Amino acid sequence: MKKLLLILLALVLVTPAAMSQNKKVQKERNKVYKAKLKEFTKEGWKVYGTSRTLKLALLEHYDKLNTLGENGYEVIGVASKFISKNIGHQTCLNNAINDYAQKANSKVKARITSDISGDASSSEGEFDRFYAAYERLVQTEVRGELQESFCIYRPLNDKEFEMQTFFIINEDAALKARIRAMENALKESEAAQKYAERVSDFVREGFE
Questions:
Q1: Three-point CA angle 77, 26, 62, nearest 5°
Q2: How far is the C-alpha of 190 from the C-alpha of 182, rounded, in Å?
Q3: Mean confidence (pLDDT) of the chain
Q4: Which of 86, 101, 129, 148 could form a disulfide with 139 if both were Cys (CB 3.0 to 4.6 A apart)?
C-alpha cells in the first residue's frame, strides 16, 4: 500500500511538469508552423502528390509532431534541378536517409573522439571502419522508419524543379534502428568491440 501511494505521489508531481513541457513544445511548433506557412506561400511552393492544401498539410504535420512530443523527430529531404517529379521525390527520400545517417554517425564519432580518443588513438583505422559501417547500416535500418508527412515543390525554370519532402521518425523506433546498425558495425572493428558498452551509450543518446 505504501509503495502504491509513493507511485501515485510521483505521478501527481511529474505529470504537471510533463504537461507544461509539452505545452511549451506545442507553442513553439505553432510559431514554426505560422512562419513556415508564410515562407512557403511567399516562395511559391506547392504540395505534391495529394489534394491537401499547403495549410492543411502543414497543420497535419505539426499535429503529428505534437502528438509524438519529444519522441517525434523531423527529417527533411531536399532535391534540386530535376525534370521528373517522381525522380525528385525519390531523391528527397534518399537524401533524407543519408542526412539522418550522417548526423547519427557524426554524433557517435564526436563522443568517441572526446571520451575515449586517448585509449583508442592507436586504433584509429579500426574505428574508421566502424564509422563507415555504422553510417552505411543506419541508412539501411532507418529507411523503413521514416514516415513521409508531406512534400512540396516549385519550378526553378521552364523545365527544372526543386522539392522538399518532410518526414517524421519515431525516436523509439529510430533508436532500435541505430542499435541494430551499431551491433552489426561492431563486427567490422575489433577496437570498437573493446568499447562496445560505451559506444552503445553514445548511440542511445540520439541527437538534436
A1: 35
A2: 13
A3: 86
A4: 101
